[in-house]
Amino acid sequence: MRVAILSIGDELLTGEVTDTNASHIAGRIYDCGARVFRHLTVPDDEEAIAQALTELAAASDAVIVTGGLGPTPDDYTAQAAARAAGVELELSQTALDHLAEFEKRIARPLHPANRRQALFPHGSRLIPNPLGTACGFVIALEQAELFFLPGVPYEMERMLADTVLPELSKRLPAPWRRITLKVFGIPEAAIAEQLQGAFPADAPVQLAYCVKYPEIHVILRAAAENARPLEQAAAEVRRRLARYLFAEDDDTMDEVLARLFRESGLTLALAESCTGGMIAARITAMAGSSAYFLEGNVTYSNAAKSRMIAVPPELIERHGAVSAEVARAMAEGTRKTCGSDLALSVTGIAGPDGGTPDKPVGTVYVALADAASCRVERCNFQGDRARVRSITCFTALNWLREHLLTRHGAAVPE
C-alpha cells in the first residue's frame, strides 16, 4: 500500500511549530505493515491544498491529511477537499450536534464561527473526535482514500488509532514488529562498533539508529513471520549493550526510575544548582512519586547552598561552587537535613558565560550520597546551555537508576 501524508499549516512552513504529527503517523503506519512513501507540507491556502490532494491521490492508495479543520477563516481544508473532489460543502447535523455537546460539557456556548467545523464535502464519511471539536472525514479521490484529521496532536493521535488505522489494517499485510532498545552514555559510533556481527548478515532483521538527544535508540525491525530471528537479534544486542541499556520500546527513563524507587522502598531528596529544578520536575511528573520523593532544593546562589543545605561558606570560598567538594557537601547536607535514604546534587557551569580555563562551560559535578558513602564525579559536557542542562538532568537520573539496580537489585553489567 502506498501511503502519503499531507500536513497543512503556515506555522509548519515558518518553523513556528514542529510537525510531530507526520512523525507519529509514519511510525504507526510502519508498525501496521506499510511505509509512507511521500510527505508534503503546504500552507493555509485553498488552491495549494487542493492541488496537493489531487497530486497525492493520483499516486497513492491512502492519504492522511492533518490540519486546517478549525473554526477560523484560515482553515481551508474542508473546502479545498470539496474543490478537489468536485463537490459542494454541506452541513452535517451529526457534527453540529457533536460541537454543541462538546461546548456544553465545558459550559461554554457554541460560537457561531464553530459552525464552519460542521461543513464537509458532499458524500464524505465522518471520523469521530472524542477529544475536541473538529470531526474528521473521509473522501474518495482517484483510486485513493483520503483521511482528514485535525492538527492538534493529541486529538489526531486518538482519531488515527480509533478509526484510520483499523480501516487501513484491513488492506495491509501482516504488520512489522519493532523492538526499540534505548541506551545512554555511549556514542553512536561506539554502539555500531559493538554491534558488528551481532547477528548474521542474511538475517531477516533490519538494524537502525535514532538519536533523540541525549538518548540513542537502537531499532530492530522484522516482518511478523520473522519474530524468532528478531527476538534472537534483540537478545544479542541487549547482551552487548547491557551496561548502557536503560529502557525498551515505549518505556522511558522516568518510568523505569519510578518503578525502581517503588520496588526499593527508598526515599530521595535533591539539591540542584545548574539544572534549576529540572530533575525534580521529571521525578514528580510520575504519578505516585510522593511515596519516595521527599523534597527538592534549588540552591542556585552560594548563600542558598549554605542556608538551605548546610554547605560551609568557607568550602565554597576555597574550592568554588562548581567543585567536587561542594557537590559532595550539597548531597550529604541534603540527606542530613531532610532525612532521605538517598540525596543527589548537581552543580555546574551551563553557560554561555562563567567558564574558566580550568572549569570551562559544560563542567558539571554530580554527587550521590547514601548512608554508607558519597559518589562524586566531574562531567565535561558539550553544547549550548539547554543541552548542558538537559544532559546533566539525564545523567543524574541515570545515576539514580544504576544505584538502585546495583545496591537494591540486579547489578549493572560491567
From TrEMBL:
Designated name of the protein: CinA-like protein
Signal peptide: none
InterPro entries documented for this protein: CinA, CinA-like_C, CinA_C, CinA_KH, Competence-induced_CinA, MoaB/Mog-like_dom_sf, MoaB/Mog_dom
Family statement drawn from the similarity comment of this UniProt entry: Belongs to the CinA family.
Residues annotated as domain MoaB/Mog: 4-171
Taxonomic superkingdom: Bacteria
NCBIfam families, sorted: cinA_nterm, molyb_syn, PncC_domain, PRK00549.1
